[in-house]
Design brief:
Elements: E1 2-5, E2 12-15, E3 26-34, E4 40-47, E5 54-61, E6 67-74, E7 79-82, E8 93-101, E9 104-109, E10 112-113, E11 128-131, E12 145-153, H1 159-166, E13 179-183, E14 192-193, E15 202-205, E16 213-214, H2 241-252
Antiparallel strand pairs: 1-12, 1-16, 2-11, 2-15, 3-8, 3-12, 4-5, 4-11, 5-6, 6-7, 8-9, 9-10, 12-13, 14-15
Length: about 250
Amino acid sequence: MARSFVTADVEYLVNTVSAPLTATPFSVSMLVFPLDVSTSNTLFWMGDKALTNHQHLLLADGGASDKIRAGTSAGGGNFYSNSTAAYLANAWVQAGGVWTDPANRQAVLEGVLGSEENTSLNPTGEDSISIGMRRNGSPSFPANCYMAEVGLWDTDLNQADWDMLAARMSPIGVRPESLISYWPFIARGLSVEPDYVGNHPLTANGYAGGDENVPHPRVIYPTSNKSIFVPTVAPTGDPGGAAYHYNQMMRESQ
């Protein structure tokens, strides 16, 4: 199953305890099914929960010609790289961003990197992460889409990596030595979404009555001769544990 994010219900996932990383380089990728081309969808946000303008964020922005946008702010406005092409509504697309260093960020759509944005910015106090909402000092821009297969790497992925993700390889099959968080959204109705690689579970907000699940998109998982490390301690609120849900995920994908 994938997760739905409904703007009207302000549905999002968040961890305000800590962020998986606090500095560049890093990359993020996910599969997204936009429900319209008018919403400014917050796909991924990492920043200071007490401030409004120290953050890294990835958008599917209906207010910016339907482009994927990878942005950063550090005490002022957001500076964005835009994807070369526009996304469409009601279709799964691969969206991502790569922040190579404080002065280099690029949006990605279906494996194609957008133009570089080169303003040097160093956000401070990044202590939280959210999917589906800018969960900063003034929460805003909830998403209106479905999402699945969210991966976060502590490196700048290269073109070969983005090609694999665009071909629908799961994040666990791309640069696994640098993958630090992975949220596939494969399980049903969890109030806390486990991080299958790191230790950053995400708490669900705004969901009511089982509306959080939609069919999972087609994904290529690594063959059985590859390995992935998962936490041995169950994330908070998930008594089954990440290893349990990962094994369930692999069985369901066969």
